[in-house]
User: Which sequence fits this backbone?
């Protein structure tokens, strides 16, 4: 089992994606989450998304070359967000940006692209959330042909909404594991392919009221292919390193062992600085979690052998 980290936090001072990859490799990470949200879809449109196909291919080739030389693997690509905009013109743009992100993931050789569901700010009541869920399914279906063509799988991430009046988080589309399963299973049934999977964001889970982490892990089961690992205080989306907030990482590790999760333990953190020391501290926190998961896997295996005996 490998550990990874997102590039986004290491490009805040103007560093390139390639520089972030090299830094994370030096810190000890073997896997990289290439987060394209630095090329946000918000207005004004970032020039990155106006690149020609040839320019996109050149960008992807540079990322792939950097990763190969640094001996790391781009284990996932995060498409830009948010994905919901009320204007039809903007929705068309978002679709194009997501298609570009899938294309870039394929060129790099990444097996997964993470795409947020549609989360309208007003989707707060049960009926409003239900409507937004169906909108999200229609949205995700639009990418099926490209997913099949490229071999990239689309990961649905659990989300939360925000109550601006009370200044607190709220559940919304894909907040609960039941909703995530419904979206993923519905899409895969519609298209007849295993093209959609789950990305479990640990911090979002603490904000959405979607159930505890072990429960979500166990119920997602084989659907769970990706993790966005970070901590918080249960009140704000702080994206802290593991063990800095309220998450019970021992129980989380145990639940991963129970489903025999073999994917990447990938951090998605925010940092105060993007230097090597910071990256190395994050690596140590991720390595601690990895060792805990490996220990729990051994315990799980011993338990199964004992039961069979």
Assistant:
């Amino acid at each position: 089992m490998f550990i990874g980290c997102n590039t986004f936090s290491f490009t805040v001072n103007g560093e390139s994606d390639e520089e972030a990859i090299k830094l994370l490799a030096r810190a000890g990470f073997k896997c990289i989450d290439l987060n394209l949200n630095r090329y946000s879809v918000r207005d004004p449109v970032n020039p990155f998304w106006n690149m020609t196909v040839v320019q996109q291919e050149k960008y992807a080739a540079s990322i792939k070359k950097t990763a190969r030389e640094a001996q790391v693997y781009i284990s996932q690509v995060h498409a830009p967000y948010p994905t919901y905009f009320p204007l039809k013109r903007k929705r068309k743009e978002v679709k194009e940006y997501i298609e570009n992100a899938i294309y870039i993931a394929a060129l790099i050789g990444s097996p997964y692209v993470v795409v947020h569901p549609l989360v309208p700010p007003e989707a707060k009541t049960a009926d409003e959330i239900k409507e937004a869920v169906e909108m999200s399914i229609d949205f995700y279906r639009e990418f099926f042909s490209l997913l099949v063509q490229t071999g990239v799988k689309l990961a649905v991430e659990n989300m939360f909404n925000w109550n601006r009046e009370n200044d607190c988080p709220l559940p919304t589309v894909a907040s609960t594991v039941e909703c995530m399963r419904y979206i993923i299973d519905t899409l895969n049934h519609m298209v007849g392919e295993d093209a959609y999977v789950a990305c479990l964001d640990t911090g979002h889970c603490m904000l959405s009221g979607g159930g505890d982490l072990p429960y979500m892990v166990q119920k997602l089961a084989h659907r769970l292919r990706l993790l966005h690992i970070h901590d918080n205080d249960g009140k704000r989306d702080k994206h802290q390193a593991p063990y800095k907030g309220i998450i019970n990482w021992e129980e989380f590790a145990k639940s991963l062992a129970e489903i025999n999760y073999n994917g990447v333990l990938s951090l998605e953190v925010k940092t105060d600085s993007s230097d090597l020391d910071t990256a190395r501290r994050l690596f140590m926190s991720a390595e601690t979690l990895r060792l805990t998961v490996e220990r729990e896997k051994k315990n799980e295996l011993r338990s199964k052998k004992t039961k069979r005996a």
Q: What stands out?
A: The beta strands are 3-6, 31-35, 73-78, 112-115, 153-157, 161-163, 168-170, 196-201, 224-228, 265-267. Residues 276-308 form the longest helix (33 residues). The mean pLDDT is 95. Residues 118 and 136 are 5 Å apart (CA to CA).
